[in-house]
Amino acid sequence: MMDVRDFVVSQENGVKGLVDYLTLTTLPSPYIQPPQERLTSDKILSSSSQIPVIDVSEWTDTDVAREICDAAAKLGLFQIVNHGIAPEDLKAMIAAAHGFFELSREERRMYWRGSSVSETAWLTTSFSSLKESALEWRDFLKFEYLPTQHDFAAMWPLVCKKQVIDHFKRIKPIAKNILNILINNLNSTIDESNEKNLMGTMRMNFNYYPECPEPNLAVGTGRHSDINTLTLLLQEDGVLNSLYARATEDGDKWIHVPPIPGAIVVNIGDVLQILSNDRYRSVEHCVAVNKLCSRVSIPVFCGPVHDSVIEPLPKVLEKNDEMTRYRKIVYSDYLKGFFGRPHDGKKTIESLKL
Ligand SMILES: O=C(O)CCC(=O)C(=O)O
Ligand SMILES: [Fe+2]
């Protein structure tokens, strides 16, 4: 019998390598999730109308600002349309991500984390594979955007390099517009001193979820909130029943986030929840996998630089005469907490609650 974990993780084949190598009819045991982690139909709310879809063609419109701030406060997740990125460009991104995962196993492996040919792009599988009792059915290639550093993308895979750089450039002003709206609503502004805390880093994933023989027993990405400020995510059109958001903080009910052609999903991360002293909510989400088709998703994560000190904005506390709800922390320590354990809901932010 083959050691699946060893083949996927240690031998750097990824789960994509596994499905290409074997004809699987059952889910290999390292991927079998305990029942409480499976997204069974009784946990899924029937209507998807609860995910706001916001037309952002007029960024300065006060109604747009209000809708964005409301959605950030209630669910912590919404979709935007008419954001200015052409549908063809979004389709080209999805195709570029598939292009990478369709490269040969050897070509993909050149980017494996720890020995990647690029310092700013690396491939890995699952999330925290050494610590997880059950693996996630996902490989991902991560890109770090360092436009001030000459040749940061020199070694990126040619099959997607241009598209990834273009996507970072197109997403950045959209992220800034949304952050501006959210921060203005907290009686603050984005200026030179805090821009680094809000969007001093930008990273992108190509998440790849291969077809899965027993999707009901597996997860693609386990329950988590993103830890950064804001994530702008591109979903693959037509692949339904993948991304789910937790409906309320305390219940085990999940809302489907449907792919809408041309739309971008926006979700609030832990850092914005902390900066706003809980006015905005980082949303817990997870990803289910499919039996018959693979899926890619492309999140762009805007976040603080690593030495930022994360704590509620003074203006928020002053204006409302309230106490901070969080212990302050340097962002690099926050990252260590998150990446040091398997995906586990909102455990990282909860560990800072006073
Ligand atoms: O695949 C998705 O739709 C979401 C992935 C995700 O949550 C993440 O990469 O943080
Ligand atoms: Fe996420």
**Contiguous runs where pLDDT drops below 50 for at least 5 residues:** none
Which strands sit side by side, in order, in the main sheet?
1-2-10-7-12-5-4-3
User: Can you tell me the CATH class?
Assistant: Mainly Beta
Describe the sheet with the most strands. Answer: 8 strands, mixed
How many H/I helices?
A: 11
β-strand percent reads: 15-25%
Structure description:
With 354 residues, this protein is of the alpha+beta class. It has one domain (48-350): B-lactam Antibiotic, Isopenicillin N Synthase, Chain (Jelly Rolls, Sandwich). The protein has helices at residues 4-10, 14-21, 62-74, 87-101, 105-109, 161-184, 192-199, 270-275, 314-320, 331-339, 347-350; strands at residues 53-55, 77-81, 121-125, 139-145, 201-209, 221-224, 230-235, 243-246, 254-256, 264-268, 285-287, 295-303, 309-310, 329-330. The strands form three sheets. Strands 1-2-10-7-12-5-4-3 form an eight-stranded mixed sheet. Strands 6-11-8-9 form a four-stranded antiparallel sheet, with no helix packed on it. Strands 13-14 form a two-stranded antiparallel sheet. β1, α3 (62-74) and β2 (77-81) form a beta-alpha-beta unit. The termini are far apart. Bound molecules: 2-oxoglutaric acid and fe (ii) ion (FE2). 2-oxoglutaric acid is lined by residues 205, 207, 221, 226, 233, 235, 242-243, 285, 287, 297, 299.
